[in-house]
Amino acid sequence: MTNRPVGMLDSGLGGISVLAQALRGLPGEDYVYFGDTANIPYGDKEPEEVLRLTRQAVDKLIFHNCKAIVIACNTATSVAAQQLREELSLPVIGIEPALKPASLLPGEGQILVLATQVTLRLAKFQALMERYGDHAVPVPCSGLMECVEAGQMEGPQVHRLLQNLLTPYLDKPIKAVVLGCTHYPFLRHAIAGFLPQGTPLIDGNEGTVRQLGRRLREENLQAPEGWQGGHVTFLSSSNDEATVRRMQTMLEMALTQL
Ligand code: DGL
What we know:
By secondary structure, this protein is α/β, with parallel strands linked by helices.
């Protein structure tokens, strides 16, 4: 048992959707959240560069005494999770597009997997496609992450972008939509507006937090009984107060609206 914090990282603010889920699912833990806002986006960089940046972010979290690392970014997980697990002695938990749970849902139709170019291109997702991808349609979504970073979760620009991205798929039945980038849960309502009522929109956040809990238990790293928990420290590579304030606002939004 230890009262050291759990570290979480993303290229920017998207991983705050995972942080919110962690605060709900594992409220007894403290968290350090690092957003690599000076280097965003990861989603259209070369994998070597994403690996270098993810390593750098992890080093920062280790410097802040974190006991486990959650890569709260599908892109960075695809590129770096396996490698970092081999290199580090602390638990490294990643996130992947929730194609498996989507494929297990009842019903017919396409499963649209919204994610970054890099996530959809790499071997990790290709392996998921082979196992669960019978009806899956990968949809690279450039531009969406930028809206979330700018605090635009709805409005004409988001609407136009989603219309361009989703219209090609709307004339056939849709069984589910996978939100395969941690920024996209913030656009859940805007995306749902294009889909038949009741279409499931699935993200990987719950599964990731469950896995974090499991790994902490396995390694006997849970916060001690009676530890209050729930404390969050925000860090960003932009190193400015304004970014930290935006992170706090996003967390409040995620906790109340997602
Ligand atoms: N939030 C990241 C993910 O889950 C991607 C955003 C980016 O392109 O940097 O994939």
